[in-house]
Amino acid sequence: MALNQMEISISFSGELSDAHEIDFYDVSQALIGFQRSLELPVGPVLTRETYEYVLFTSRGDMPLDAEGRVSSYNMNTFKGRFFLNEEQRPIPFELASNTRDARSVRIITDSLAANAQNYGAGMIKCQAFREFSRTGRLKRLLIVEVLG
Questions:
Q1: How far apart (Å, rounded) are the C-alpha atoms in residues 54 and 46?
Q2: Pairing, β 79-84 against β 64-74
Q3: Above 70 in pLDDT, residue 114?
Q4: Measuring CA to CA, how many Å separate 57 from each of 34, 60, 115?
Q5: E strand or H helix at 146, and its extent?
Q6: Which tens digit of pLDDT belongs to each residue from 34-69?
Q7: First and final CA of the chain: distance in angstroms?
Q8: Residue 142: what are its φ and ψ, rounded to 5°?
Q9: Beta strands at 89-95 and 79-84: parallel, antiparallel or unpaired
Q10: Phi then psi for 22, rounded to 5 degrees?
């Protein structure tokens, strides 16, 4: 028998079994209590490199210019993704607490709306601290000023 197959044998006795009148409900009731354990992978295996990527973050000394467009934004958490032109990929960002004013949020959401309606539109500039992994890969932006 293959490892991914299982064979179950159920025996019944009594009048119903003699008359061949056992239905599916009877069979399912017989299986109550039968348990098996099934191991399913739910995502990629975490390697040492993955662990180090998550564990280690270094932040630049000074905020730098960042130009791109907002591709997602959550107004409850002030977090989102910013398609950074120089990286040519979306980078997670968070608005610093001093940048969570109405003007900055409006510029962020206007960029998101423009980008959603016309891919590539909605370019903005901001000042942000860059956070890097141990290998130097850009992990996140902490936006301290939205320039428009």
A1: 10
A2: antiparallel
A3: yes
A4: 48, 10, 29
A5: strand 138-146
A6: 555 445 566 677 777 776 767 767 788 899 999 999
A7: 66
A8: -110, 105
A9: antiparallel
A10: -95, 125
Amino acid letter, 70: V
Structure tokens at 59: 């932040």
Dihedral sign (CA 113, 130, 136, 123):
positive
Domains of the chain (ranges; CATH) run 58-146 (2.40.50)
pTM score:
0.65
Q: What are the φ/ψ torsions at residue 88 (nearest 5 degrees)?
A: 55, 40
Q: Are strands 138-146 and 89-95 parallel, antiparallel or unpaired?
A: parallel
How far apart CA 86 and CA 66 sit, in angstroms, is 8
Report which DSSP code applies to 101.
Answer: S
pLDDT surpassing 60 at residue 21: no
Residue that is written with structure tokens 């934004």 in the block = 73
